[in-house]
């Protein structure tokens, strides 16, 4: 008898060629046959009428075809309840003496009923429940992605609002700068015009004096008093320096200006932190108008008088 494999059912190799795995069993010869030997077995005159059964068929009779892996010439006839394994009569005598045993066919029937019940439970109860959970998870995943898309739309819209607001504040700041520039230039032009006016007056007085000096002396020469008016020009106008304070940008906190970014939370975290009925979404938009942060201060015109 060839050695058995270590598989659960201990099927033997072909008893005829002792090379190929046995796939059939001849009840008349009590031998295991491979595919080739089974064909030869059916061609021989002496064995052509033998009853041959497939070892892969789902037949309770196949239990009678199982041989012990230790005592290869002995069929497995019993099942040791203590050791939880099939045994032959030699095994019972040598290593399972005194153990509770049952016939292998009885255990086979019990296990067959048990596996049928397990299969029924799997197909009728467990699989439907797990498939239901899977379907719900697929729906939750889709809803989760849709929620992320909705939040992104809110972030994009809020970002545009903040961008418009910052742009508007920047435009106002530039307008304030140009108004201050305009006021400063007006003051400078006013001072320049006053200097030009005094220069024109002095030039006119110089021409008049030249004309008096070149004319023939007469009584009017002694009455000419323009020189006395120079007292009004002895004191030079005080120049004024106009400067612009530099732009001083204010720091704007990213979270306060755009809102707190969304974070991932599980249902366990929600219950632990806030309670199931008290939890609120982590995303909270905070508008720049209400954050208390001011934009950069407008440029201001400062006047410094040189003394």
Describe the structure in your own words.
By secondary structure, this protein is mainly alpha-helical. The protein has six helices and eight strands. The protein has helices spanning 35-43, 89-94, 104-214, 219-223, 254-258, 267-273, and strands at 24-26, 31-33, 52-54, 78-80, 85-87, 101-103, 240-244, 301-305. A three-stranded antiparallel β-sheet has the order 2-1-3. Strands 5-4-6 form a three-stranded antiparallel β-sheet. β1 (24-26) and β2 form a beta hairpin. The protein starts with 23 loop residues before the first strand and ends with a strand. The relative contact order is 0.07.
Indicate the topology.
Blueprint: E1 24-26, E2 31-33, H1 35-43, E3 52-54, E4 78-80, E5 85-87, H2 89-94, E6 101-103, H3 104-214, H4 219-223, E7 240-244, H5 254-258, H6 267-273, E8 301-305
Antiparallel strand pairs: 1-2, 1-3, 4-5, 4-6, 7-8
């Amino acid at each position: 008898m060839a050695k058995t494999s270590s598989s659960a059912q201990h099927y033997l190799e072909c008893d005829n060629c002792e090379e190929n795995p046995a796939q059939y069993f001849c009840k008349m010869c009590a031998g295991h046959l491979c595919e080739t030997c089974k064909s030869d077995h059916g061609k021989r005159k002496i064995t052509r009428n033998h009853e041959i059964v497939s070892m892969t068929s789902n037949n309770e009779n196949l239990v009678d075809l199982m041989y012990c892996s230790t005592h290869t010439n002995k069929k497995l006839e019993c099942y040791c309840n203590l050791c939880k394994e099939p045994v032959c009569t030699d095994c019972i005598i040598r290593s399972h003496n005194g153990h509770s045993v049952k016939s292998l066919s009885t255990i086979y029937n019990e296990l067959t009923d048990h596996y049928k019940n397990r299969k029924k439970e799997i197909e009728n109860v467990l699989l439907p429940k797990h498939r239901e959970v899977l379907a719900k998870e697929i729906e939750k995943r889709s809803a989760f992605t849709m929620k992320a898309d909705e939040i992104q739309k809110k972030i994009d819209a809020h970002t545009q609002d903040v961008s418009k607001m910052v742009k508007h504040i920047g435009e106002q700041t530039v307008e304030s700068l140009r108004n201050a520039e305009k006021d400063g230039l007006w003051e400078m032009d006013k001072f320049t015009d006053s200097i030009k006016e005094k220069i024109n007056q002095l030039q006119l007085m110089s021409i008049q004096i030249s004309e008096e000096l070149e004319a023939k002396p007469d009584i009017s020469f002694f009455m000419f008093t323009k020189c006395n008016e120079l007292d009004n020009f002895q004191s030079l106008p005080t120049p004024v320096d106009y400067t612009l304070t530099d732009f001083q940008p204010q720091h704007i906190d990213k979270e306060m200006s755009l809102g707190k970014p969304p974070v991932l939370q599980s249902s366990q975290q929600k219950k632990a932190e806030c309670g199931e009925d008290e939890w609120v979404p982590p995303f909270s938009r905070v508008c720049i108008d209400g954050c208390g942060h001011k934009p950069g201060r407008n440029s201001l015109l400062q006047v410094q008088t040189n003394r």
